[in-house]
Structures are given as structure tokens and as C-alpha cells.
Design brief:
By secondary structure, the protein is of the alpha/beta class. A hairpin with a 3-residue loop joins strand 12 and strand 13. It has a 5-stranded mixed sheet, sandwiched between helices. A 4-stranded mixed sheet has the order 8-13-12-11, sandwiched between helices. A two-stranded antiparallel ribbon has the order 2-3. It is built from 11 helices and 13 strands.
Length: about 325
């Protein structure tokens, strides 16, 4: 009998501290008079939400995870696998997923982290689905995306405009009918030096000089060409469709990385899909990185935009760059 992984519930957590664009204008307006206005026009972002100072990434993840587990109608002890995608971890090591496992009481679960930035959630879904299909003893997997990048940014860097905190989660269950059924990936490490945190690892261990030089903070060193997403997302979706045997027109709903509203509008036009078949949350929540896809997906379910049997596609794009997509039947 064939085994599949079916997505049975979602959860989301948006933290408490609202940071509207007017607050950033007050902070940066004297040095960069037009920056906030230009970024709002180019991205659509008007707000972002920050976690309390006493919270860490695993705390955000735990909030979303508990909601997803509760909505699945199961207990934490029934989870067999915890997968956490983030590039703002609690620590370099140990893995944040094992910290999360303990916080939510998933004492019977194995864990691992996925670290391909904002492509981590679809990558994590694909990995967890594959593990479920080849492990007859595994029934439930929890996949979480979490983001607390503003904590790793220099508060005087105007690129903090983008960083919103949050977490999203999904529970997968082993099933005999298809749920997740396709995945596709692409990457180009030639862009690895464009945006990141470049000290604190083995390339440059943390030091006083690294901290004073700002190299332990996240920085955009060089702008990513817009065609990476504008051309890369449609190429990845077409690859997913071609290798899995469905037509683009059969896609009922699609969720992209939530960084720029105009990018999503452009790509939907490229794919000849109406905007009603996607969902955007960056305007009110900011760019929540590794968490943005599961947060947007959860919000779409809450707003009844996804029906049972719909063909759903998730497309993630992260610095590096990494891109990943999955398709599933709701």
C-alpha cells in the first residue's frame, strides 16, 4: 500500500509589537529622507511586528507549533518528527529544532533544522514528506518556519524596514491518498555574498573586531537582481508542473515568498493565473522570511481561500540563493 504525507493543519504566530512605517520614518528620515516611502512603494509593506525582548526564535516557533498541533487534534507526544526552517536560529549549535521539541513537549520526535533561508519551509515540507513515505512507523511530522531577523540586524541599518518577526507551522500525517506529491528546487551559490551574516561561523569566528565592524549583523552587501524571482519563480513552477504532470491552469492556489507585492503580481501574470489564486500578507506583517509562507498559508486557510481537494503550490526564495517549491492536494 502506498504511503503519502497529507497536510492536515496549520498554525501561525504574529508577535505583539507593531512597528509601522511612520516609526521607521522617524528613525531614518533625517539620514535617508525618501527611503521608507520608496521601500513602501516598491514592496507594499506598511507594518511589521517585532517579538518581545524576552522571546527567541524557538519561542515564536513554539507558539505556531502549538496552534497547528491543537488544530490537528493530536497531542505533542504523537509527533514523530520536528523540522524547523530558519536562518535566525537560537544558536549556531545546538539545532533550534531540538530546543523547540523540548518546549512543546514532543518528547517522542526526532528533529532537524533546515537552513536555506526563506526557501526553508517548502524544503522542510518536501523533506518531511519523503521521510514519512519511506518510514512505515512514522505518522505525524511538524514543519515550522520561524523568523526573528530584526534581532540580528543593526538597528541603524535602514534595511530593517523589511524585517518582521513571526512563525508558521503545519502538521503532516501519513495517509494512503496523495497529499504532497511534487517538489522542485534550484539554487545559485554565486550570490552567496550578496546578503547574509558573514561573521560568527568558521569563515570568520566571532571576535571584537567582527562585532565592531558590523559583520555579526545581517547585511545586504549587494542588491539581488530582480530577475532572480521574476524569472526564477515562474521557471520553478513550470518545472514543478512539467515533472508532476499538471497544467498551470490547474493550480487552484499558490503562495510565494512575501517580500514584494509587485513581484508576486508580475509572476502571477507570467503564469496566467488570476490574483484571486494567491494571497499576500507582507503589507501588514512585513517580510517574515522563513516564516512568511506558512504564515500566509495559514491566513489563506483562515479566510477560506483554500478548499478541500484544491491543488496548492508553495514557492520559496531565500538568500544564497535557494529556491524551492512543493505541490499538494488540500
Amino acid at each position: 500500500m502506498s504511503r503519502y504525507a497529507r497536510l492536515i493543519s496549520t498554525g501561525s504566530y504574529l508577535p505583539e509589537v507593531d512597528v509601522p512605517n511612520c516609526a521607521l520614518q522617524a528613525r531614518f528620515g533625517q539620514r535617508f529622507p525618501e527611503f521608507v516611502e520608496k521601500m513602501e512603494q516598491s514592496s507594499g509593506i506598511r507594518h511589521r511586528w517585532h517579538a518581545r525582548d524576552d522571546m527567541v526564535t524557538s519561542d515564536l516557533a513554539a507558539e505556531a507549533a502549538r496552534q497547528a498541533i491543537d488544530r490537528a487534534g493530536i497531542a505533542p507526544g504523537q509527533i514523530d518528527l520536528v523540522v524547523l526552517g530558519t536562518d535566525s536560529p537560537d544558536y549556531i549549535t545546538p539545532a533550534t529544532s531540538v530546543v523547540l521539541q523540548h518546549k512543546i513537549g514532543a518528547k517522542n520526535a526526532g528533529t532537524f533544522d533546515v537552513g536555506c533561508a526563506c526557501a526553508s519551509f517548502p524544503t522542510g515540507l518536501a523533506a518531511a514528506s519523503g521521510i514519512i513515505t519511506c518510514n512505515g512507523s512514522m505518522k505525524y511530522a511538524l514543519v515550522v518556519g520561524a523568523y526573528l531577523m530584526h534581532r540580528l540586524a543593526d538597528p541603524d541599518d535602514p534595511m530593517t524596514f523589511f524585517y518582521g518577526d513571526g512563525a508558521g507551522a503545519a502538521v503532516l500525517r501519513a495517509d494512503t491518498s496523495p497529499g504532497l506529491f511534487a517538489s522542485a528546487f534550484q539554487a545559485d551559490g554565486a550570490y552567496a555574498k550578496h546578503w547574509g551574516i558573514y561573521a560568527g561561523g568558521t569563515a570568520e569566528p566571532a571576535s571584537e573586531a567582527a562585532v565592531r565592524g558590523g559583520r555579526t549583523s545581517v547585511k545586504m552587501v549587494e542588491r539581488y537582481p530582480p530577475e532572480i524571482n521574476h524569472e526564477g519563480w515562474p521557471r520553478l513552477v513550470r518545472k514543478l508542473a512539467d515533472t508532476s504532470g499538471f497544467a498551470l491552469s490547474e493550480i487552484d492556489f499558490i503562495v510565494f515568498t512575501q517580500v514584494r507585492k509587485p513581484s508576486i503580481e508580475l509572476v502571477m501574470n507570467d503564469l496566467a493565473l488570476p490574483l484571486e489564486r494567491t494571497h499576500m500578507v507582507m503589507e501588514e506583517w512585513g517580510y517574515t522570511g522563513s516564516a512568511c509562507i506558512p504564515m500566509a498559508l495559514h491566513d489563506a486557510y483562515e479566510k477560506k481561500k483554500i478548499a478541500t481537494g484544491d491543488l496548492v503550490v508553495l514557492v520559496g526564495s531565500g538568500v544564497g540563493y535557494n529556491q524551492a517549491a512543493v505541490a499538494y492536494r488540500a
